[in-house]
């Protein structure tokens, strides 16, 4: 893992979230790996009609979905 971010999607404009080095929580001991002008761009899009695979789950009575 390089860094971790948490955000509220209500603040996303135009489906793009731009983060600079001050906005991300860089792991201890890895600050020297990233330049001071580090940026991450997070892109969002609509899923549309795509069906995502579901992991099987087991209910209390033992049935698998």
UniProtKB/TrEMBL annotation:
Keywords: Hydrolase, Protein phosphatase. InterPro entries: C2_domain_sf (IPR035892), Formin_homology_domain (IPR051144), Tensin_C2-dom (IPR014020). GO terms for molecular function: phosphoprotein phosphatase activity. The keyword ATP-binding does not apply. Gene3D superfamilies: 2.60.40.1110. It holds the Pfam family PTEN_C2. Residues 1-47 form the C2 tensin-type domain. This is C2 tensin-type domain-containing protein. It comes from Hordeum vulgare subsp. vulgare.
